[in-house]
Amino acid sequence: MSEAKSKVIDGDTYQVSQPYEAGHTITEIEARVLNQSRSENIGNNVRASLKEIKATAEAEGWGEKKLENALTKAVAEVDAAYEFTAAAARGSAKLDPVEKEARKQARELLKNHLAETGRKLTVAPEGVSDEDWAEKIETEVDRISSIPEVMEAAREAVEARSSRAQKMQEALGSVTV
C-alpha cells in the first residue's frame, strides 16, 4: 500500500490513505467511477472544439453528414489519445477553501520563481511536452501548497476573507430581494 497523503478538510490537514497503486485490480464500481470520470474529462476537453466545428459548419454551409463526421472524429481523436493525469484528477477534485487558497498561493509563488528566469507556468521548456510540463507544474504546486507556512498563510487569508464578508453582511443588514 502506498503512503498516506495530506488532505485539507475543513481547514485542518489530515493523513488520508492512498490504497490504489499501478497494477491494482479494480472492482466493478471502481471501474464505473473511473469510466465516468474519464468520460466527463473527455467531454470537458472537446467541448470548445465541438462548438468551433459547429460554427465553422454553419458559416460554410456544411451538410448534416459532414458536420456529424467532423464532430464524431474530433471526439474519437481525443478519446483515443486520452490518458488520466494527475493534473486532470486535480481539476475535478473538490477542494477545501484553505486547500484551494494554498494551491492559489503556491501557483503564484511558482509563477514568480519561474519569471525570475524568464520562464512561464504555461510554456513548456524546449524538449519537454506540454503534458509533462503541466504534470511537473501540478506536482510542484502540490508540494509547495502542503508546506506548513503556505498552509498557515492560506488559513489566515481564508479567515480574513470570511471576517470581511461577515462585517459586510452585518453592515448590509437585511436583504429585501
What this model shows, in words?
The termini are far apart. The protein is mainly α and 177 residues long. The chain has a two-stranded antiparallel sheet with strand order 1-2. A hairpin with a 2-residue loop joins strand 1 and strand 2. 7% of the residues are buried. 67% of the residues lie in helices and 8% in strands. Helix 4 packs across helix 6. It has two domains: 25-84; 87-177, no CATH class.
> Biggest sheet: strands side by side, in what order?
1-2
Q: How many beta strands in the DSSP annotation?
A: 2
How many domains comprise the coordinates? 2
Q: In terms of structural class, how would the helical and strand content be classed?
A: mainly alpha
Could you name the ranges where pLDDT drops below 50 across 5 or more consecutive residues?
A: none
Radius of gyration over C-alpha positions, nearest whole angstrom: 22 Å
Largest sheet: 2 strands, antiparallel
Gap from first CA to last CA: 54 Å
Q: Report the order of strands and helices.
A: EEHHHHHH
Could you say which overall geometry the principal axes of the C-alpha atoms support? extended
| Helix proportion range | 55-70%
Mean pLDDT: 86
Note the total helix count: 6
Percentage of residues in DSSP E strands: 5-15%
List keywords for this structure.
single chain, 6 helices, two-stranded antiparallel ribbon, 177 residues, 2 domains, mainly alpha, 2 strands
Write the layout of secondary structure elements.
Blueprint: E1 2-9, E2 12-18, H1 28-60, H2 64-81, H3 86-92, H4 97-116, H5 130-145, H6 148-172
Antiparallel strand pairs: 1-2
